[in-house]
């Protein structure tokens, strides 16, 4: 991943979408690169900041992975980047944009 993309994502997401932690952040691919993903997914709309603990749990604990899917933090191979993500700090749903910004999802209280 290019350093400029990583910087853009971490500026947009200064804390973990799941717990609000601002330390030990990693840039998380919403769609696993092994599930139809590639370096082509190294774009802001496919990436989000999460803490390292949550990132690991999404990959190793099935109940956490399922919860992450309901929150838009983890996408299946057929799901689009336009699906919103839930932000536990603001309690809002956002659509991650191609320009590296995020926009409040206005279509109801939750997506899933």
Explain the overall architecture.
It is a single chain. The protein has 112 residues and is of the alpha+beta class. The chain has one domain. It has helices at residues 3-12, 52-60, 62-70, and strands spanning 25-29, 47-51, 85-87, 92-96, 102-104. The strands form 2 sheets. The chain has a 3-stranded antiparallel sheet with strand order 3-4-5, with no helix packed on it. Strands 1-2 form a two-stranded antiparallel ribbon. Strand 3 and strand 4 (92-96) form a beta hairpin. The longest helix is centred in the N-terminal third of the chain and has 10 residues, at 3-12. The mean pLDDT is 91.
Task: Summarize it.
The chain has 112 residues and is of the alpha+beta class. It contains 3 helices and 5 strands.
Mean pLDDT: 91
How many discrete structural domains? 1
* Helix proportion range: 25-40%
The succession of helices and strands, N to C, reads: HEEHHEEE
Shape: globular
- SSE class: alpha+beta
Q: In angstroms, what is the radius of gyration?
A: 13 Å
* Number of separate helices: 3
**Major β-sheet profile:** 3 strands, antiparallel
Q: Spans with pLDDT under 50 lasting ≥5 residues?
A: none
Strand content: 15-25%
Head-to-tail CA distance between termini: 29 Å
Main β-sheet, spatial strand arrangement:
3-4-5
The tally of beta strands, per DSSP, is: 5
Q: Tags for this entry?
A:
single chain; 112 residues; two-stranded antiparallel ribbon
Please give the structural blueprint:
Elements: H1 3-12, E1 25-29, E2 47-51, H2 52-60, H3 62-70, E3 85-87, E4 92-96, E5 102-104
Antiparallel strand pairs: 1-2, 3-4, 4-5
Helix pairs in contact: 2-3
